[in-house]
Amino acid sequence: MIIKKNNYEIPDFLNEQFFKNVIANKIGSKEFELISLDFSLGCNPGDNHFSSVYRVQATYNEKGSASQVEDLFVKCVPLDGDLTEADIFEKERLMYCDIIPRIESCLVNVKTAPKCYYVATEPIGTMVFEDMKIAGYDIADRINGVDINHCKVFLKKLGQYHAGSMLLLEKEPSLKETDNLKHGIFSSVSFTKKGLARPAYMNLAEMIEHASKWPGYEKIVIKLKDFLKNKTFLDKVVDEIRISPGDIVGICHEDCWVNNILFQYKGGLVTDALLIDFQGCTRGSIGLDISFFFAVDAAPNVLRQGTDQLIEDFYYPALRAALEEGSYKNIPTIQDIKNEVKKKAMFGLFGAAVVLALTSIDRKDFDENPVDAMKDDKKAEKIAKIACSSERFKETMKILLKECESYGLFD
């Protein structure tokens, strides 16, 4: 048995026996010999905020067969922490091992996420997936945002995923009572002083400083200052996250930022997309995911062109086709979808104010993990100033603030 750690610090529990369990679970047999394990890092240091990830190439030999190679992606999540990681891990396990296979069973030949081969809870929460890098999948540019071609591909896949979840909820209404789907990673639970409230209001204060210098934003600034003074910004966001009468409801990912999306590249073109990291999923309005994606991931030039046409040409046809194939009752119209996205625009603004601001920080400007650094008051203030000073952040905010104002969401 050959183990190549390649000078990386690999946890002791990721050993021969662990990967024997993985391969046995994957192929449905214990009749094989594990020949070698070759490790590498799953992402750049600091790119994954809540977990450690590794790539492993496992070579094994089934009896009477030639050696086979399995490319694996391993994600290790501490089962404690500020964001109650135990619940997050259990939610993700539920999604990958139960809900996503059932969503895909409601669709016709649509893959929405990588397959999960194995889950362990000791000594820490660990999940093992197929490594999609082998098929040409990778993460897009988190600093500058994704271009219109990435948006087209992702919106099509998001429409299919949402349709599958809507079909599943219609088929199995008892899922409405599943505890792990009652709230996501963004909720009144996480909007606490120790959670996301501090960066939200720090960044809101920085955003106000910038917006006060932009001609035509005077009325918006007054309303934003009121949100800051009375600490009501997150109350508005929570109101949008809660399911309201008339919402178009599916099983939302709720955290569609660029590192949670894998894009497939062939011949220099983006050809497919998959969702990953389902730790924040919730039963809620499909408008949350669309609004969040545009606000957090799309490059400013995409936002300036307007998003309605992208929804009309790529998201909606995929959603409608999948719903029709599944004989869904009361299929929403394109106008219903556009209205849903507008209703949830404040959630997108929140995503830009907190998630975009933190995740698009260039490592040369701040080389620590922003999530860890936010626990220190002085570092948190420094991060807020850096995060909210990038041209992308400011240009994105100029667009989103005007949109939210036009929808009456600041009133």
UniProtKB/TrEMBL annotation:
Q: Name one Pfam family in it.
A: EcKL
Instruction: Output the Gene3D superfamilies linked to this UniProt entry.
Output: 3.90.1200.10
Domain (CHK kinase-like): give its ranges: 127-325
Name-wise, this protein is: CHK kinase-like domain-containing protein
